Amino acid sequence: MTEAGAAHTEAPTGRAARELFGRAERLLETARAVLADHGRAVDAVRGALDPLLDALVGRELAAIPVSRLKDVTEGRLRIGAVEEAGYGTVGQVHAASPYELRQIPGVGAQTADQALAAARQIAHAVRDTVSVRVDVDAPDEPTTALVVALNRLVEAGPDVRRACDAARGLVARLEPLLATAGPAGGRLRMLFTGRAARERARAAALCVRTAVAEAQERELPLLFGQVSVDLLRAPESAPGAWVDFELRSAEYYSLLAEMSGTGPDRDAAEGFLPAGIADRVRGLRLDDAHLRVSLRGYQSFGARFALAQKRVILGDEMGLGKTVQAIAALAHLTARGETHFLVVCPASVLINWTREIRARSTLRALPVHGPERREAFTEWCESGGVALTTFDALHTLPDAWGGAVRPGMLVVDEAHFVKNPATRRARSVAGWAERTERVLYLTGTPMENRVEEFRSLVRQLRPELAPAVSTTHGAAGSHAFRRAVAPAYLRRNQVDVLSELPALVQVDEWEEFSEEDLGVYREAVDSGQFMRMRRAAYARPATSAKLNRLCELVAEAESNGLKVVVFSYFREVLATVEEALGEGVFGPLSGTVPAARRQELVDGFGATEGHAVLLSQIQAGGVGLNMQAASVVILCEPQIKPTMEHQAVARAHRMGQIRTVQVHRLLATDSVDQRMLDILARKDRLFDSYARRSDVAEATPDAVDVSDGSLARRIVEEEQRRLAAER
């Protein structure tokens, strides 16, 4: 019931009012408590963060010559005496007290105060530019304190923001209402209250009843209680917090940017959109009630862009989370009453979409793929959710329009797959797009380099824009191109929006065996050969799901000018990859290649302008070689020695790396890969954490070794039993 409508019902007075006010006060108490609990958690983070920021600012100021103080005061400040006294940097002046500066001959009180004010101004400007980077390989005490403090908020999850927003709104709404409604709690008090005040009290009492009822309907007391419990739990141990940081560092850095006030430039985070469009997008409030993750600012903007503009292409550079932005848009529409959504993607990423939707939202993911796709499609038509299908399967689905099923949004991943309107897949997608109000195309390919492709895609979404898109826009550069196509296109680059993020983003790429893959895998399992099971996914290159996904990742990296290093334990797998990728590939590096030749290959890889691919056995490339030219790492299979995988990734993710490193681990569902990960996950993660960061582990790759024969036998036996049960 609304507050306006409540005025037409009878206002509670006397005992009924007192009971109502009591419930409202208890509700307010829980709201104030969750805000206080959150405030303490935030204060703990700021208490750990401030010394780290101060140290960073101090280092920057120590490199700025004291003469810069003149620039701040436009030359009015005379600092010759200060320089002669040995103050050579702004940092030295900033650290001095007014008394110390006044003791310098020729420096009076006014000059000392002006010098300190100028130094503070520079320090404030520097503080806005520095950001704390967390080095997991060198966890000192101050950084550990910060990670532990952040862990409390990360563990509490996105419910914290929802609870705090609701609590602040409730406090702002209820407190003045209760103050005005007070006289309604006693009949005698109402008797001695003026007529106007009585009317205000009755109206306020009705509004209090409405507010309490709405809070109960939204289950706010339960939300407040759960969040307070999360925020008041005992602090995580330092090793446990570090392990959690490694598993989801992006969430930590998102909070860190929020707390420190640092982050990407707003224009860059908003894709340099024209002011009118950016204002419209900012004005849309994203409903995240169905999300299980917190979004970064640029991700929230991307989701809102899709919702505000309705038919768009999101072209963020790979690694920026286009999938989660699409899921956020679907979650928002779900909260607004939409029930059916359709995602079309390549078969190689359908499993990842299914996992991402289930992990990052409360939405129901329903794969519509394979022999039973028609039954699954019928179920989706009847029950709703997010239907996930492939480009090749889309045209085989029944016509849902007769049943009046219209998706709240159509999402097309790797949208450049439908750039040719003459193909069957493009016609199928276009048919759905024509009859769907909201359409979101996702592609990591920079469209300003492929204007004809973009014109084709935008014609499907916004035909009126297509004639205005010309090749001269692309030739003029990315900013000119984006301004021309702003109503339908948003792209952000890593360098613009990930400045404060860790230089490591890890993605598990789950694939389903093709029929040929599965046949080879079954033979390997029947033979009991563990290593053969591990490489079975590449035995039939023409139909290999893993190899197909690897080629897609390399192609996307090529379109973005990124270098790629591909690791595998097996030389046969690398040979297969080399043949699939064709000429121009460096390597493969292996144990049989002399050390000098290995370094030559790495140097040549690094010296190549733009995109290049380096192949390496993980045993050979994982130790002693620096591959920081690569910003994309592909692991062909999971490793049974965790330190080996860790050290291989560290070849690219190390000092000197200037881009975020993306690590893609190729995995096959219902296979030896999944068994290995399950077993490794059950090991003591804290021990692994210590070992990975120890000198012994760095010197000895086998320090954390779970590759003994018993483990291999156990996996083989588990797989033999599972496959036998399926026959």
Automatic annotation (TrEMBL):
Q: What SUPFAM superfamilies has UniProt attached to this entry?
A: P-loop containing nucleoside triphosphate hydrolases
InterPro entries found in the cross-reference section: Helicase_ATP-bd, Helicase_C-like, P-loop_NTPase, SNF2-like_sf, SNF2/RAD54-like_C, SNF2_N
Q: Which residues form the Helicase ATP-binding domain?
A: 303-464
Q: Where is the Helicase C-terminal domain?
A: 549-702
Is Nucleotide-binding set as a keyword in this record?
A: yes
Pfam families the record matches: Helicase_C, SNF2-rel_dom
Keywords per UniProt: ATP-binding, Helicase, Hydrolase, Nucleotide-binding
Q: Name one GO molecular function term.
A: helicase activity
Q: What is this protein called?
A: ATP-dependent helicase
Q: Which organism is it from?
A: Streptomyces finlayi
